[in-house]
Write a structure and sequence with these properties.
Number of strands: 4
Order of helices and strands: HHEHEEE
Largest sheet: 4 strands, antiparallel
Strand order of the largest sheet: 1-2-3-4
Strand content: 15-25%
Radius of gyration: 19 Å
């Protein structure tokens, strides 16, 4: 088999494999209407989330893969995330922009079975 055919077969196989991957939160259940979690919206600051939901049961902060790209942090802004985890409610995921200590909501993950840790 020629190198071109091998490369074409590898490309097709990779494209088909990537097409079947689903994001981790693709099948999310929205929070019930009228619940406190339903009031949290994208772009909301962490202080406002705490006014609505109270203090989180626990938190988790971590760098994203984008944070390791040279100079990405100056323009991209998705190099670091923080999760507020609420027992019996779910998670609120925040993004931290470069050169700022302010956290903004990027996603709400409703899970009534969340253990809080």
């Amino acid at each position: 088999m020629s190198v071109v055919r091998r490369l074409a077969a590898l490309t097709v196989g990779l494209a088909l494999g990537l097409a079947t991957i689903q994001p981790a939160f693709a099948q999310e259940t929205p929070p019930p209407a009228g619940s406190a979690m339903a009031k949290v919206t994208k772009g909301m600051p962490s202080e406002q989330v705490q006014e609505i939901l109270g203090a989180p049961t626990s938190t988790n902060s971590y760098p994203t893969g984008k944070g390791w790209i040279p100079f990405y942090g100056w323009w991209g802004g998705d190099g670091y995330r923080t999760d507020f985890i609420y027992k019996g409610k779910g998670k609120v995921i925040f993004n931290q922009k470069p050169f700022s200590s302010r956290l903004k909501v990027i996603r709400v993950h409703y899970d009534p079975k969340e253990d809080g840790f």
